[in-house]
Amino acid sequence: MTDPTRAPSAARSAGTLGDLDALVGSCRACPRLVAWREEVAANPRASFAGQTYWGRAVPGFGPADARILVVGLAPAAHGANRTGRMFTGDRSGDVLFAALHRAGLASQPHAVSADDGLTLSGIRITAPVHCAPPANKPTPGERDTCAPFLQRELELVHPQVAMVLGAFGWQALLASLAASGWSIPRPRPKFGHGAEAVVSRVDPDTGGRSELILLGCYHVSQQNTFTGTLTPDMLDAVIGRAKALVGLP
Ligand code: SF4
Description:
Elements: H1 17-26, H2 31-42, E1 68-71, H3 80-83, H4 91-102, E2 123-126, H5 140-157, E3 161-165, H6 167-179, E4 196-202, E5 209-217, H7 222-225, H8 232-246
Parallel strand pairs: 1-2, 1-3, 3-5
Antiparallel strand pairs: 4-5
Bound molecules: iron/sulfur cluster (SF4).
């Protein structure tokens, strides 16, 4: 059994996505984030009183053959850190899953708990940091510690497009990719709604070359959706572009 404080170093040996997800769920490599996620879990919001929080690292969610990977920054303290599933149980997720359902990529428009029956097709949701951080701000060291999980997820899923939610997620993804040996264009591509950039990597073992298209999207946060910075039409357009890039109807 892998030492939970060293789980990221075992990511490379995860043979399947299920193995990787289990490894992520067991991870205790970042002391500050482990303490925070468990403190939040022990002190539920009044509206969630009586619920048992997940309080652990949150694996990615979605099928192994997904051509599109949605990348946030990290789980929300009272969202995914409570439900155990990415973007599930918070207002951001309400907006995201409704849009994915409109696009035919989610089986239902709501995501309230890990056992609500929701399934995704063609798309998977993950984050460069798998534990809820204080103030939604992981440190660069925590991001780099978590990077092997993302790298292995990319190897196992082989997505063609990463739809990145928000500037912080964009920067964190680029840093995680750089830490995993991906070539990032210089100057570094800037985040923007609808921005596109291509990154690539040569596998040191096989010599095989992988490419990934990054596609920027304003974050589905209440701050953006309540103010009209991100409208449903804008979100639908980016998801439509992602589908077109991977050849989905
Ligand atoms: S952020 Fe990543 S590396 Fe750190 S404890 Fe959570 S899962 Fe492990």
